[in-house]
Amino acid sequence: MAALSENVLTVNMLLSVFFLPGIYANNCGRRTPLVFIKTPKPTAALSGSCLNVPCSFTAAPGRTVFDSSKETRGAWIRDGNAIFDINNGVKTNLVEITGNLSQKNCSSLFSDINTSQAGKYFLRIENSDYKTTDCSDPLQITVE
What we know:
The chain is α+β, with helices and mostly antiparallel strands. It is built from one helix and ten strands; from the N terminus they run αββββββββββ.
């Protein structure tokens, strides 16, 4: 009986090592994402052109709730860059969120895109105490 229990434990550990990490295959770590974006997949652009990306998002309640009556700020974060606070709004030289974030519209314009801008982009939303990043399904941009 002890050998059977040991075998079950071994199988359970192996399954955890090989299959469990798949549920954490995104960039969320062990956190549950609270915002989910919807963008065209795949998204490609020609080098030197502008890329208009239609985008919308849903906001799930967490410790706080998204409140569309409050000021909403957002930013696109390139893979590998950590951001936890948005101080200067949503416009940069490379990307401008053109949609109304309060209405959950994150449509964006990437200007003069080049190959160094290819990669994964994560949407960060800040709405009063509601602060979260879409880590589960990033915008993937390829540049040719």
